[in-house]
Amino acid sequence: MRYLEGLGSAGIPWSVIGLGTWQFGSTEWGYGEDFRAEAHRIVARARELGITFFDTAELYGFGRSEQILGDALRASGGTDPRDGVVLATKFLPILPLAPILEQRAVTSASALGVRAIDLYQVHKPHPVLDDRSAMRGMATLQRIGLVRDAGVSAYPLRRWRSAEAALGGPVLSNQVEFSLLRREPAADLVPWAAEHGRVVIAYSPLAQGLLTGRYDETHRPSNRVRRNTAWLPANLRALAPLTDALRDVATAHDATPAQVALAWVVHHPNTVAIPGASSVAQVESNAAAAEIRLRDDEHAGLTAAAEAVHRTVGPRAYPALARDLLRG
Fold first, then answer.
1. 66-90 burial code (b ≥16 CB/10 A, e <16)
2. Tens digits of per-residue pLDDT, 219-237?
3. Helix (H, G, I), strand (E, B), or coil: what is residue 91?
4. Fewest beta carbons within 10 Å, which of 94, 117, 160, 212?
5. Across the strands, what pairs with 20?
6. Contact partners, residue 156, CB within 8 Å, separation at least 6
7. SS3 at position 78
8. Global pTM?
9. Candidate from 14-28, 176-190, 271-285, 312-326 with smallest mean pLDDT
10. What are the backbone angles phi and psi of residue 97, rounded to the nearest 5°?
11. Is residue 267 within 8 Å of residue 292, measured between CB atoms?
């Protein structure tokens, strides 16, 4: 495992491959009645493999994810900083006011079974209200020791910096969608994070499975969450050249396309990827990606192949769809 050193107040190195737990407690992702037992096995194996960064949210599984992750961490060795874990969760800012954030942090800490949350993140930027009240609440939580470090999620750079100004201190991380198919963070968030000792946390680093090499237009996923416009045959057909490029690089590294896609993300400085895992085998595969060191020409080649992908159907492809309709 590789680590980012010197981050945060807990003094724990951050593994460049973490574990995202959106799936924990969410039956639509395939968890049945025994998902708690499987989650315990996944978390225990993740820790054995050197994964130190674990991410959840009060929203995931309607609160079940926090409970399952907290139980699993205690069963596998505890969540005290001395046990080498960075535990992150998120506040859903329906009304991002200081008293509400403070109360929700207490609830999350209780669900996780911890005295302090290592990283407490504002889950989304509120479309109307700014971050001044929420960050006053965050500062209070830090002052009393319930929260060690503040973070945000899905914030553009300007708002990330504005949140820091409102807090009057570091907003350590920004959790954003970042993958070969969503490369925007590499343009501004990653360089700023690297320059200022902050972290970009990449969620959906495998684009919800599109970058695993497992699917094409004749083989689509059966999971209903994934059977959306991104997985329509036309889009999977457009993805094929990038999938071929991932396979070529994977062959050179004795790896899988999914591992290479993760290696592309963590090739960037000050970046942690948090893929989910629905099995022990999957978390083992994800962790192994940290050991892959892409050459600069491999990274550039994958980037070029990704830039050539143009989805023709779906909300991220409206301009292409409009052109197709006009041509028709």
1. bbbbbbbbbebeebebeebbbbbbb
2. 666 655 555 656 777 778 8
3. strand
4. 94
5. 55
6. 125
7. coil
8. 0.91
9. 312-326
10. -105, 150
11. no
C-alpha to C-alpha distance for 179 and 207, rounded to whole angstroms: 6
**Which of the pair, 61 or 163, is modelled with greater confidence?**
163
Catalytically annotated residue among 3, 31, 60, 215: 60
Site of tokens 């292409």: 320
Strands, DSSP E only, in 154-281? 171-177, 199-203, 271-273
Edge-first strand listing for the sheet containing 271-273: 19-20, 53-55, 86-91, 117-122, 147-153, 171-177, 199-203, 271-273
Q: Specify the DSSP element, H or E, that contains 288.
A: helix 280-288
Give percent of the chain above pLDDT 90: 73
Return the amino acid letter for 96: P
pLDDT digits (tens, 9 = 90+) for 122-176: 999 999 999 999 999 999 999 999 999 999 999 999 999 999 999 999 999 999 9
Q: Are the C-beta atoms of residues 20 and 274 closer than 8 Å to each other?
A: yes
Q: Could you give the CA distance from residue 96 to residue 127 in angstroms, rounded to a whole number?
A: 11
Residue located via tokens 């900083």: 81
Provide the residue type at 11 as one letter: G
Q: 176-190 burial by CB neighbour count: b if 16+ within 10 A, else e?
A: bbbbbbbbebbeebb
3-state secondary structure of 195: helix
Answer whether 132's CB lies under 8 Å from 139's CB: no
Do 264 and 293 touch, CB atoms closer than 8 A? no
DSSP classification of residue 176:
E
Task: Kindly report the backbone phi and psi dihedral angles of residue 206, in degrees, each rounded to the nearest multiple of 5, phi listed first.
Answer: -105, 15
pLDDT level of residue 108 (50, 70, 90 thresholds) = very high
Report whether 175 contacts 169 (CB < 8 A): no
Known catalytic residue at 60: yes
